[in-house]
Amino acid sequence: MAPPPPAAANVSQPTIDSLTASSRIPDAADPSDAITQPIAVVSERLPWRHTFIALKVPNFRIFASGHFVAVIALWMQRIAQDWLVLQLSGSVTAVGFTVALQFMPSLFLGPWGGMMADRFPKRRILIGCQGVAAALAAILATLALSHRIEVWHVYVIALVLGLVTVLDQPARQVFVNELVGPKYLRNAISVNSTIFQLGGLIGPALAGVLLTAVGAGWAFAANAVACCSTVSMLLMLRKDELYVSTPVPKRKGMLKEGLHYALSKPTIFWPWLMAGFVAVFAMSLPVLLAAFADNIYRAGAGGYGLLNALVAVGALTGAITSARRRQLRLRSVVFCAGMYGLMLCLAALAPSMAWFGAAMVLAGFWCLMFLTAANQLVQVSANMSIRGRVMSLYIMVLIGGQAIGGPMLGWLAEHLNPHTAILVSGGVPALAAATVAVVLARKSALRLKVDVRDRRRMVRIVAQSA
């Protein structure tokens, strides 16, 4: 049995833009309808040595080390896969279609995956999913290294991998809490984001080298080995130190219950809505980067890997910044989404690849700040008994939206031009963020206050009466 969750230290009760994270759903007899725990917000600036304090938990250190290797290999496969499809087909639309096949299952089956995460042990789900992912990567590697690979092979494997993701992602999101408990949950989410983005910095660079030197096959082989290492890491975890949540018994209406719960809470609904706009229009950035590297800057596979690495540089900075964030606010989620869209709009105006790359660094920073804040707010706003279903709905929007956005942006880049495509990619989320900000300000009676005498906070949001 797992030890009881430790009490949070050095925290204070937050105010989330006058929209409380605690709300009660009808039929309080159901454990999933209980009042959400207050969101812990660090009230003082963390020492730098505590930036990634979740790593002090032994199980999380084991998980993080294996996850780091796996993420590098995953990025290598993603870059190699997209570039391979582009080379085999000569079509950016085909790259977008590959993205759609990989993410489409989450759009239709995501809630079911969340229900499985609530009903069954998360660790076992992850072991099974990683085993299948290793087999798929090995098949891709074999086909590529034997020079028998065709576009339809990549399509089929991308679809099957998407089905694996349906189960893997919600279980992985909720499993973080079982590794560290509620005390370090927010920090652990930031650590995971840092690992993912650091892998995104290393993986594309390695993929660019491999694509140029030996081809895509070895990138797929590396991912197969990494998935096997992830299985080994999961088997090494100390079971007696996990904060295992009690599986929810099967009953009718579980999916409807999760949807009703998510829609009833502002701190889940609004991040969910913003994630939808960002996912559809701005999360298929690799598709656009492939178009810019190939058609605009003529930089080849190395240039494509470089642009993805620059996005990861900004995202890594954003991940570290998010780990040190003291306050978790709904307004921060909306603001970061708007800034991400604005950076993509600026990239459309870049006069050279150097300026475009600089815009990608800033875009990566704000994208990661948004994703981390939204993930944290949704997770800590949901009770453990229903968190798998809530997170699956969030992932369904975030990943499933890319299934729509990938082909759409690929078509725009190919039939109009990449500059128009990236302008649409950033403009829609920026406009959506501005609209949501106005709606929330009116609901909460907030306004902007400018005080030129306050050099540290010249512009801030205050209540109408202030």
TrEMBL record:
The chain crosses the membrane at residues 59-77, 83-104, 125-145, 151-167, 188-211, 217-237, 269-293, 299-320, 332-350, 356-378, 390-413, 419-441. Keywords: Cell membrane, Membrane, Transmembrane, Transmembrane helix, Transport. Residues 54-444 form the Major facilitator superfamily (MFS) profile domain. The keyword Membrane applies. It is a multi-pass membrane protein. One of its GO terms (molecular function) is transmembrane transporter activity. GO terms for cellular component: plasma membrane. PROSITE patterns: MFS (PS50850). It is found in: Cell membrane. InterPro entries: MFS_dom, MFS_trans_sf, TM_effector. Pfam families: MFS_3 (PF05977). Its main location: membrane. This is MFS transporter. It comes from Arthrobacter terricola. The lineage of its organism: Bacteria, Bacillati, Actinomycetota, Actinomycetes, Micrococcales.
